């Protein structure tokens, strides 16, 4: 609709209508748990750790089957109690004791609050990040400059 110039998308996203640049960093999948959970002391989460947990999963990961290969079994056998579009909402559900959120790292501030802890999956799983914009977009001067600076930065960081 022309409301946004750019976006950052995660994972397998249809980019037919967009130009994009792959960002150099991937984001790591893990489990968001309350700090007082018995799981908070674990350094990694294995597929077997999820079998009896009430899980909160993103709509995107459920629709794209992103976690089924990692889980290595019938993902529908898991106890998925809720789904989310915004990780902030899922973090509130984790704090309230609804369940544990399968999510990407660095989206919830677990450093300044003492309520939540992120534990990476093992074997490790990550998702690619893409910086996108609509094809043949007429950018403002500021948007053109921003896009050029980002592309220059990405080229120099290779």
Structure overview:
This protein has helices at 59-63, 68-71, 87-95, 141-156, and strands at 7-10, 18-34, 54-58, 79-84, 100-104, 116-120, 126-134. With 158 residues, it is an alpha/beta fold. It has two domains: 7-24 and 129-156, no CATH class; 27-125, D-Maltodextrin-Binding Protein, domain 2. Strands 1, 2, 3, 4, 5, 6 and 7 form a seven-stranded mixed β-sheet that branches. The mean pLDDT is 87.
Summarize this, please?
The protein contains 4 helices and 7 strands; from the N terminus they run βββααβαβββα. It has 158 residues and is an alpha/beta fold. It folds into 2 domains: 7-24 and 129-156, no CATH class; 27-125, D-Maltodextrin-Binding Protein, domain 2, CATH 3.40.190.
How are the SSEs ordered, and which strands pair?
Elements: E1 7-10, E2 18-34, E3 54-58, H1 59-63, H2 68-71, E4 79-84, H3 87-95, E5 100-104, E6 116-120, E7 126-134, H4 141-156
Parallel strand pairs: 3-4, 3-5
Antiparallel strand pairs: 1-7, 2-5, 2-6, 2-7
Helix/strand-derived class? alpha/beta
Strand fraction equals 25-35%
CATH top level label of the largest domain? Alpha Beta
Please give the alpha-carbon distance between the first and last residues.
Answer: 33 Å
Summed over residues and divided by their number, the pLDDT gives a mean of 87
Number of strands: 7
- Please give the share of residues in helix: 10-25%
How would a crystallographer describe the biggest sheet? 7 strands, mixed
The CATH topology of the largest domain: D-Maltodextrin-Binding Protein, domain 2
Write down the Rg. Answer: 18 Å
Q: Looking at the structure, what is the overall shape?
A: elongated
Spans where pLDDT lies below 50 across 5 or more residues: none
């Amino acid at each position: 609709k022309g409301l946004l110039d750019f976006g950052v998308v995660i994972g397998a996203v249809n980019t037919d209508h967009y130009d994009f640049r792959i960002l150099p960093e991937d984001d790591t999948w893990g489990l968001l748990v309350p700090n007082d959970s018995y799981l908070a002391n674990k350094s990694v989460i294995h597929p077997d750790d999820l079998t009896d947990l009430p899980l909160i999963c993103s709509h995107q990961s459920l629709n794209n089957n992103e976690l089924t290969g990692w889980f290595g079994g019938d993902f529908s056998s898991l106890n998925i109690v809720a789904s989310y579009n915004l990780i902030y909402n899922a973090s509130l559900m984790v704090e309230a004791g609804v369940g544990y959120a399968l999510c990407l790292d660095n989206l919830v501030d677990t450093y300044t609050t003492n309520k939540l802890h992120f534990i990476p999956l093992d074997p490790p799983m990550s998702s690619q990040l893409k910086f996108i914009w609509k094809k043949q977009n007429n950018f403002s001067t500021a948007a053109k400059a921003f896009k050029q600076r980002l592309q220059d930065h990405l080229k120099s960081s290779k």
